[in-house]
Amino acid sequence: MEIGLVELSRLQFALTAMYHFLFVPLTLGLSILVAIMETVYVMTNRPIWRQMTKFWGTLFGINFVLGVATGITMEFQFGMNWSYYSHYVGDIFGAPLAIEGLMAFFLEATFVGLFFFGWDKLSKVAHCIVAWLVAIGSNFSALWILIANGWMQNPVGAEFNPDTMRMEMTSFFEVLFNEVAQAKFVHTVSAGYVTASVFVLGVSALYLIQDRHKDLARRSIAVAASFGLAAALSVVVLGDESGYSASHTQKMKLAAIEAMWETHEAPAPFTAIGFPDQEARETHYAIEIPWVMGLIGTRSLTTEIPGINELEARSEEMIREGLIAYDALMTIREQRDATPPEVRETFEAHSDTLGYAMLLKRYVDDPRDATEDQIAMAAEDTIPGVAPLFWAFRLMVALGFSFIAVMVFFFIRASFYRMRFPRWSLYAAVAIIPTPWIAAELGWFVAEFGRQPWTVDGVLPTALSASHLSIADLLITLAGFLIFYSMLFVIEMGLMVKYIRKGPFQDVPETEAWQARHEHRLRTHDGQGPFATNPAE
After folding, report:
1. Residue 527 covered by a domain
2. In which domain of life is the source organism classified (predicted)?
């Protein structure tokens, strides 16, 4: 199989997946924020909260529809572009995706209609329940998709059947409670909450700069800052959990992220900055923080974290062991029911390393014919691109800590300074709107690029997973996706900008009348309320 085909297939899936993920974080976060706002409306009966729910709900709806449209194409690619992958692991990978479609997506798709068209048909409490069901459905969708992806990172609860030549599920509960999947889920949804909080914060700050919709903007900032602060702190804490999980499930990915070429004595340091040189196998001008990586990766001061060179040597050993399993597998395929029991016993003893022998198919049709040089090259292939991972991870972490600082600032100003925000901070809030998406995309890049050369870690190499399509087919479909997705992006941005410029437009008379009465009560009470003077400084 020529490498150009695999690379084009990877590029196409990467573009569609990362484009789809532009919509996912905002959907996850806005669904919760909208449900919170409607809950406050039900509890206080203040029309301003109803208006806020409808306004932010409209933006959620636009984003939700575009997210569904872009997500459908990804699932078709599994059968079209990655047919051998679908055949090899479809029994396991397809289960959570099917549950996501039948349970989570149907839940949110059903109730999202009731949310938009049920305002005058349902009671306040019933409509609030609908809002929460939409939010729960959105987050359940993420759960099942991340269970599927987490299995690709850490394939538990399954084993290879030599008679069917496929991976088969042995324990659904192991797949469901896969530690990598659970860590990825909580980390990803928390990142989505941060994304939505920064979005709400930035749009609200824009309204204060423009001196319009000020009451809605101040209340939205208060909700976004409170929710966003909790979410930003969660992202950092749960990111640490992902690092700990990787230390014993994806050691090579962790070593590449840290550009850790040699195994350090415990506890290993964290390289804050440096310039990885993969050809020379060293990191130039590295600035290290003692002990930190050991604490994050192992939660101890005595456990070593293996370096890239040591892990490469282990991979070569596993390739050689995998050749034993491959040879036994070929005997089973040839002799079927007549296979001697000792051959099957040999295969069972070494089956966990079969995927490593498959790495040799990039260089030779029959791995048993591989030369020493080819085995060494296959072992080197297990090292992903170190420099891109190194810098992507550090930029993602830097953005994560910056979100904490932003949310702390706006939370303090909203809570203790009577909603008074310096104008420079409002401009800064508008400017950082794109940054959570950058952090989210970097996170997915680290997760997926760091898994290479595997489609399913340690089980199925990426070079074997792609369909036997022509280069022309891939180039045509890639161009089609780029054109179609560019059109969707223009539509999405146009609709979002249109409705942000339009501002809250529903229940305006009722809200304005309530606001006038509320301002009057504040002025006559002590003259110091947030509406007594202009708090936007």
Report:
1. no
2. Bacteria
